[in-house]
């Protein structure tokens, strides 16, 4: 870790802290959130006088979880780990989002570490850090009780462990399982977790380490169920499949949301609201979104056909495809993917002066296998 990168990360970390200082320096009024929830659609249904938004319900849910309530009662839809984090932040500091500041620092640090494994030119890495860290989309979410930054943290952690040179193979695959568990705990994981499981399986098969996937499965299972320990104080294990099935049906139920809205968000900075047929403007949008997205597609040509590189490409373009068909529309979904567009773009720029390209490398690799 060089000093220049650390300085850039520290400066970027100051942006949300300074911009939203009044929020971070104020104690969270949990009574307000409790009243908000009690009179919301979660409790009163259509009779509620107002709707509670995701940021508010996650903050209140985190508070109830951290004080020992069943994590399936308030906001059962999403898994509880990120909300526990908000609750612990409240009980430790009196502010539900204050611990987002060190988490954001770790996210930028993990991004730097991952980028350093693929890109030799440090100036490109610094530019990517600035590109990501100056996004309003990111530093605004640091000030909120949302799940997307923890979700990004978990994928960066996963790929750092996957591409790392851990000598102890048992520890590596156990940690990979734990990182998958963290991913599963930040937001409802199905089917998006497949975009991490597939690269893991491919990696294990090519590296001839398939038998160690059992450790990853154990790590994932233990981490996932550890988040629901409180649930099992009042429920039998036999009730668990019923809860998961109910949640799956809730997510997979009839939805009238059109597909491919995410591309309107990326290219236009707005999307057509399916509930009122009016354009919904994205306040955090800037021109770097379509430029980085298109740039990552073009830069794929100059990416390397290596195992680590291929895993990043599978995840990056698999995730945007998932968002497209799963009817994602809001800007917050892009938090999980913009750093990977930037990474793919940076790899391409780093290799732009070389004669090789990914298609030539694939062709060469196929020839070697045939011989």
Would you kindly provide a written description of the structure presented here, covering whatever features stand out?
- The protein is mostly helical.
- The chain contains 19 helices and 2 strands.
- The protein is globular.
- The relative contact order is 0.10.
Q: List the strand order in the largest sheet.
A: 1-2
Structural class: mainly alpha
Basic shape? globular
For the terminal residues, how far apart are their CA atoms? Answer: 42 Å
Task: Give the ordered list of helices and strands.
Answer: HHHHHHHHHHHHHHHEEHHHH
The count of DSSP E runs of length 2 or more, i.e. the number of strands, is: 2
What fraction of residues sit in β-strands? under 5%
Helix content: 55-70%
Give me the number of helical elements: 19
Low-confidence stretches: none
Query: What characterizes the major β-sheet?
Result: 2 strands, antiparallel
Helix and strand topology:
Blueprint: H1 3-19, H2 21-24, H3 30-38, H4 41-44, H5 54-66, H6 81-93, H7 100-116, H8 122-133, H9 136-142, H10 148-163, H11 169-186, H12 194-206, H13 213-226, H14 240-252, H15 261-268, E1 270-272, E2 279-281, H16 288-299, H17 307-325, H18 338-350, H19 358-370
Antiparallel strand pairs: 1-2
Helix pairs in contact: 1-7, 1-8, 3-5, 5-6, 7-8, 7-10, 8-18, 10-11, 11-13, 12-17, 16-18
